[in-house]
Hints:
The complex is a heterodimer.
Chain A: E1 5-6, H1 9-12, H2 29-32, H3 38-42, H4 47-66, E2 73-74, E3 89-97, E4 102-110, E5 113-119, H5 132-141, E6 151-152, E7 155-156, H6 159-176, E8 179-184, H7 190-202, E9 206-210, H8 217-227, E10 232-235, E11 242-246, H9 257-268, E12 279-284, H10 289-293, E13 296-299, H11 305-317, H12 328-340, E14 345-349, H13 354-366, E15 374-380, H14 387-398, E16 402-408, H15 412-415, H16 419-427, E17 431-434, E18 448-449, E19 460-465, E20 468-472, H17 485-493, H18 499-511, H19 519-531, E21 533-535, H20 549-553, E22 566-572, H21 586-590, E23 604-606, H22 608-613, E24 620-624, E25 628-634, E26 642-646, E27 670-672, E28 675-677, E29 679-683, E30 686-691, E31 711-713, H23 714-719, H24 726-733, E32 749-754, H25 763-771, H26 778-783, E33 792-798, E34 805-811, H27 820-824, E35 830-832, E36 838-840, H28 850-854, E37 861-862, E38 898-899, H29 905-918, H30 930-934, E39 940-944, H31 951-957, E40 961-962, E41 974-977, E42 979-981
Parallel strand pairs in A: 8-9, 8-16, 11-12, 11-14, 12-13, 16-17, 17-18, 22-26, 23-25, 31-42, 32-41
Antiparallel strand pairs in A: 1-33, 3-4, 4-5, 6-7, 6-18, 10-15, 19-20, 20-21, 22-29, 23-26, 24-25, 24-30, 27-28, 32-39, 33-34, 35-36, 37-38, 40-41
Helix pairs in contact in A: 5-25, 7-17, 8-13, 11-12, 11-13, 14-16
Chain B: H1 4-25, H2 36-39, H3 53-64, H4 76-79, H5 94-101, H6 106-114, H7 119-125, H8 132-148, H9 158-179, H10 185-209, H11 226-232, H12 237-240, H13 255-262, H14 274-284, E1 291-292, H15 305-309, H16 317-320, H17 337-346, H18 361-368
Helix pairs in contact in B: 1-9, 1-10, 3-8, 5-8, 6-8, 9-10, 13-14
Amino acid sequence: MKKKYWKSLEELNGRQQQDYVGDHLYVNKNEMSGLIEEKSLNTSSSRRDFLKLCGFSIATSALIAGCERPVQKAIPYLFKPEEITPGKANYYASTFFDGDDYGSILVKVRDGRPIKIEGNDLCPLSDGSASARIQASVLELYDSARFRHPMEDGSQVSWEYADKRVIDGLRSAAESGGKTVLLTGTVISPSTKSIINKFLQKQPGFQWVQYDPLSFSAVLEANRICFNSRVVPSYRFDNAQLIVGFSADFLGTWLMPATFAGQYAGGRRVPAEDPQMSRHIQFESSMSITGAAADERIQVKPSQVKGVLRYLYDRLRGSMPVSIPGFDATLDRIAAELDENRGRSLLVCGINDIDIQVLVNGINYLLGNYGPVIDFMSRIGLRSGDDAAMERLIAEMKNGEVSALLIHNVNPVFDHPDGEGFGQGMERVGVKISLAPSKDETSALCDFVCPDNHYLESWGDAIPVTWQYSLQQPAIRPLGDTRQMQDSMLKWLGEEVDYYTYLRNYWQVSVFGLPEAGKEFDDRWNDCLQKGVFITSIPEGPQPSFNETHLAEIPSGSTVPAGEGFFEMEITQSIAAGSGRHANNPWLQELPDPVSKLSWDNFLAVSPADAESLSLATGDIVRIDGDIRIAVLVQPGQAPGTVSAAMGYGRTIAGKVAEGVGVNVMPLAGFAGGCTDYRVNISTPERTGEKHKMALSQTHHSMEGRAIVRETTLGEYRGNRSAGNEMRQKILDHMYTLYEEVKFDGLHWAMAIDLNACTGCSACVIACQAENNIPVIGKEEVYRRRIMHWMRIDRYYSGESDNPTVHFMPVMCQHCDNAPCENVCPVSATNHSDEGINQMAYVRCIGTKYCINNCPYKVRRFNWFGYARSDKYNSYMNDETGRMVLNPDVTVRERGIVEKCSFCIQRIQEAKIEAKNEGRVLSDEELLPACAQTCPSKAIIFGNIADKNSRIYKAFQDKRNYHLLEELHTLPSVGYLTRIRNKQS
Amino acid sequence: MQNPSELLRTARKAILLSCALLFLSINVSSNENMSALYQETEEAGQVLGPPTTDDIKRGERLFRGLISPGPDAASCASCHNTGLIDSFNWNPSAHEIALAYRDRSHDDFYQVVMDPVSAKMTEVHDSYRLSEEEIFQIKAWMDEFAEHGMESRPVITSLLLFILLFVIFLGAIADLVIFKKIPYKLIHLVVILVAGLFMVKNIAHEAIALGRSQFYEPDQPIKFSHRVHALENQTDCLYCHSIAEYSHSAGIPSTSQCMNCHVIVREGTYSGRFEINKLVEAYENDIPVRWIRVHNLPDHAFFSHAQHTGSAGLDCSECHGEVETMDRVKQVSDLSMGWCLDCHRSTEVDVLDNEFYSLYMQLREDVTSGRIDYATARDTGGTDCMKCHY
């Protein structure tokens, strides 16, 4: 039977695509009034007026053009630094760690300005890739919401004054006998830890609390209970043949998503010679990209997870499990599958509940996964925050036991469930010092702000996993009068040394173990600095023994489900927003959520069944528990009886981009069993009758009823390499043309996307935006379906609306050799290059938009306004400092012209010129567009298809390869490899 | 000619049209030659002893040579121009000197005029017989001159010519239609034709040159002469423009690089010490030199020096002209797209020896088999839009 693919519920139900809020596509007059004068809308204009206007505009333009060109200055360096060549980019290896995510990175610095982040391919964790948030972090360097100088109660002070007051404050805190608390996010920098230890020794009553808004407390605690080791072990998704996830979005947001996506994709790539792939089963209530990637997605309510795990544990142990209605058969099957994959399976769970995590540990232990798949010998340093300690801190603060509070890299007033309580507690603290780099809710309540540098302005180090050291070096001088946190701490400790020297000394003694600084140290230090990482041997040894005591105490059976009139709500994370610390980043705000396709908002995901029974529709504002009012999005795949909403939205003090975007749902979260509980029971969402504008980016380019995503199962693929892609042969057989076939001599660029590897993580979208100066247009314009991204992730559903299969498909300009857009351009602004690129000459474009209308892929974008110039748009480009991030190798587009993917022509040209000048063949490996470069799962293959030895040529020869809408005979240069799912049936 | 009101309407239309065209030809060319230094106003300096109006007047006369500065001595103004000039003058202009000495004492000024250090100045100033008072008067005038700036003189631009022709053109039409003073219509015809043709030519010329600046030759803040450096002292282009071989940009050398030589060379053959002093001063005071950019490509055109000097093997002069003969750099080529493409269509590309082109099998075969004489940049995609515009 032919599978029915659909993109929205309206499409599935055969309804017309209705607009969620009135006729918003027709811009009403009030909105237009700012753009066009009222008068010209009302009066009819005659031919004569037109001619007058014509004459006037010609005369004016002639007058302007006739004037002398402005005198331009060319100001060379006074002293040119040796390593800088004007016009050429330098790449510096550094480290990204914001408290949530780690990445070893390369910073592209052009003429002294960092303009792009790329993954460091020498780091096994990054492997050349960087997630969307890491990619976007460069923009925050130029954020105008950053603090420019130290402040006392909101007014500027000098560093000398601030230091004196802080030191006095700390001294009087110590003398008063109260506690001095340093509250940080997870710290993975060994040298910073040693500075904190110095503080611990020097300051009486000093206490260090680590707090993670994305908590892993339960995992840590469960590991302490089971293995007597309070750490996060490393996971090897590439070694797992069977992956079972429980509400763990490990491809999108859980722990180290970019690393895991790379490992995961390794097991999901199907070699044609020997078709093998891992199998992935995901249990979840809300729809994540991990659930979308799974071979089998099973809906489960958060309250049922414990019972399900207990069932699996009991079944695997051979004891009689307590039945869970509706799940038994499935669980028996999965237990059997797990049994078959002992030692090569992996269970992960994202629920912050100790009992659940102990059960997960128990099952993994039973299956013998510790060692080959989960490794306690190499530990992950991320997420060492302790929820219980944070709870205690709030209580202590409220009791007035805390005399001094230093806050670095966390914003608990916003993202802690009891943020309000934390704020109240702060009132009773003697001296409150924030080290926040930019304004946030917590620093607003502090007495002193001693702003930290942006990480691209700072030195640093990190140990993300036991066997890897990672160095961080500044790529630019601090833009404001800021000082990095470690320097401030050293200053307050009364140390004479600056952090750079301290860091070098630390590495000399503690990392390299060298007795004295000298040539050997310099060489090793410089080597590490250049490579960004220092990899020690991966430790081997026995895994810790398992303690079953606690496990035995966990009761069998399902926990009490939410009663009548209640909904189980899960607070999730979105790929773009995360914990909300990057909320003032317009790139991330405008990045559509890969599943819901909504940007500039969070939403309450409601299952289609519940939406129908509650008569809710997308865009309805509902009231949930108390005062939280949030817009509904009907999300196919959401488990009935559950709802979910992402954290990280609803910032109130963050800068002009973030403020007022979305709703903060963290106050709903609770605290249970020593851990923050992201699962809550809420009363039935109550309609308010109001509507919210939903800036959805997908419904505006529907490809109705055509076979766009092609899919097969592993079983079928084993029998037939063209399975799922049979229609390609039929189409090829019917391709007749009267025109001569276009031949490419030398270079013919092409791209193939392995739909099996693509997870929809959207890192490519941000990479493309950073590389190609793509404007941010703001919610209003996205709402008008004008999003500018050159690379979009199309999402399709198939199957039932309650639990559909989700398909992702990255779509960018297909660079058709027979391009429909090229034929219709009246001024030949778009045409075909000798290298097979559909090229777009912006200066020639007059904005007829014929090409947009004639493009079957809808990949061309129109600059409705001068986004780079007008203050009307929430764009980084019209910001004094924000525009420093622009790539000087790419034109900033004007109003009224069309733009689209260029295959990163500037990168192609650069690589070609280099190869030409060196007189050598251009290698397949050295040249990648930004999207392919950053893809964590290496799903994008790019190269020269005219070269028969290239990887791309081989990919195009693969029987899985097909082209989007190839029946139109557009002959795209972008191919897609048919998706294969490892389904049992 | 029967209906005068219709004719009037026609005339009015013609005038309107001409006005529009007039706009088209406007070409304001005045401060093209203004040096960057003059545009920067500095605070007025102090003057020792208040000079009287007479002092200033006498100072000006002395400077301009109305009062002889000494037997057989040329006037100051004969070397140090007081007005804007088109030609290149090695000697500092009166205004530059005035600015340089505004904040310095009379003794300094006396010293430099009467007992100069540099050889060239010593030779020229040798015949000066000026008293201390006269020097004081010259300085007094110069201090005032520093405030006024250079004297501008009317420049006959194409605009003035255009207006003149336009008036004649209109006059001829008016006489033909209304006044009828000149009996021979042939005269009208000739005048209208000639003036009209000139105007059309002018408009066409200006329209083509829109946004281009061929023959642009601005005064630089320091009178750096490529002739002296590249021709007389045989410095290689790439010694200073070293990154031209591996970057998009050819690069203007940093001030510290100039100082590689000028740490020793402190006196120029033609310029004495005045110009080199500016460099040294900039270097010592950490003020970058604000050169005037001569070759300006529009922002949407990406050009790589590396490719053109590297694999293409072009000589600098092929685009920049004989820079080594220029005292003041002048844009020789118009840098238009047509000019680029002409070269791309005709210049040979060495596809056989450069391994990069080994992928271009068809092209190589065409060359080796003699089907085409040689491969051009166009054959390797050198005329594609996205080779330069992205």
